[in-house]
């Protein structure tokens, strides 16, 4: 009996207070080991043939809200560094509009965990642009237009871009190369694009960009050049008939920077704008002759010279704008905030004074015609409180004198709702009886208009 009691006490003594915690700790270590083993197995499997097929299926299963889809014929190589993508196609709701037979990607995918796209090189020998895309309209959900992600591309190259006749009306061959480093405190971009001239193919376009903006190193240099001959790729895309040359250059640092934008079209100057930067404030002053690039009534509106004076204070993806443009036909100004981080207007005041209404249409005339609007809210659906004033506004023989109209427009679905509250001292040009009645008159109405196209007032 005494021996049994001693044995019991001995067993109890051998069971330390840490007995169960040790078991739990051991179980945790085993679970973590199995988890690591499973992760390692998934890592190996994803880079296998079946893993590549799984990744391809996931990519092809994604359909963007605007209707864009991406398909991949086959993945070869390693998804963790040097990857070869075969038969890449990009489609809109009407079908494929870009095909890339083979692209090579050398990258570091795990950098994505730190919101960093790290690409050593992205190259393709050929790419085919079959037509311009036609995506579905997508309502703005307020997402920032500038993504909060760092991008590094050591080498970007497409040796031959075959642009089909459906894009511009004639076939073009182009090439593209460049590099990029984009982060919160850095923007370094080089781009070199060319359109090849062949015996039966128009080209000769050259686009070069060198941007070196690194605030931490107090560097801010930019040099951009566009040379677009008549009948070339740029001319075919824009409809411009004259040869065009644009140049933007500037040097300095973030405390003091000076630059200049110049342009020639058909040998005549179309732009000469000085740009000055002091800390985060930029000032633009100069003139343009945009009428030579336009046609019809729009061209007349901007002739002969349009003068520009604009100030922009930049701060944390926001721009406070002040200034405007003016010529012999009209004057327009702005004062307010544009928020690129949230895609919204904040008390953005727009003002237009029409000096020569006849440039809008031959049958319109008027005196002291002024329009003002205050924009707030999302870019896609802003609220605009407007006011129209005119001492006299005439259409053919009928004239409205002492006109004052105001309201607050809103966008609902695919329609712009324009409430109108208007008053006029007199409506002239009618027969004598009606003219005597139509003095000190007013009206209220709501005009529904589509966001695109034309809709008669209902």
Question: What does this protein structure show overall?
Answer:
The protein has seven helices and 23 strands. By secondary structure, the protein is of the alpha+beta class. The chain has a 23-stranded mixed β-sheet that branches. The radius of gyration is 32 Å and the shape is globular. The model is unreliable at 449-458 (pLDDT under 50).
Radius of gyration: 32 Å
Shape: globular
Span between N and C termini?
Answer: 108 Å
Sequence stretches where pLDDT stays below 50 over 5 or more residues: 449-458
Indicate the proportion of strand residues: over 45%
Q: Helical segment tally?
A: 7
Report the average pLDDT across residues.
Answer: 81
Helix-and-strand structural type: alpha+beta
Tell me the series of helices and strands, N- to C-terminal: HHHEEEEEEHEEEEHEEEEHEEEEEEEEHE
Portion in helices: 10-25%
Biggest sheet features: 23 strands, mixed
Number of strands: 23
Short description:
The protein is α+β, with helices and mostly antiparallel strands and 458 residues long. The protein contains seven helices and 23 strands.
What would the keywords be for this entry?
458 residues; 23-stranded mixed β-sheet; 54% strand; 23 strands; alpha+beta
Task: Draw up the topology in text.
Elements: H1 2-14, H2 19-46, H3 49-60, E1 69-71, E2 74-77, E3 82-92, E4 95-107, E5 116-129, E6 150-163, H4 165-168, E7 172-183, E8 186-196, E9 206-214, E10 219-228, H5 233-238, E11 244-252, E12 257-265, E13 268-278, E14 281-288, H6 296-301, E15 306-314, E16 318-326, E17 330-339, E18 344-354, E19 364-378, E20 383-395, E21 398-412, E22 415-428, H7 432-437, E23 439-450
Parallel strand pairs: 5-6
Antiparallel strand pairs: 1-3, 2-3, 3-4, 4-5, 6-7, 7-8, 8-9, 9-10, 10-11, 11-12, 12-13, 13-14, 14-15, 15-16, 16-17, 17-18, 18-19, 19-20, 20-21, 21-22, 22-23
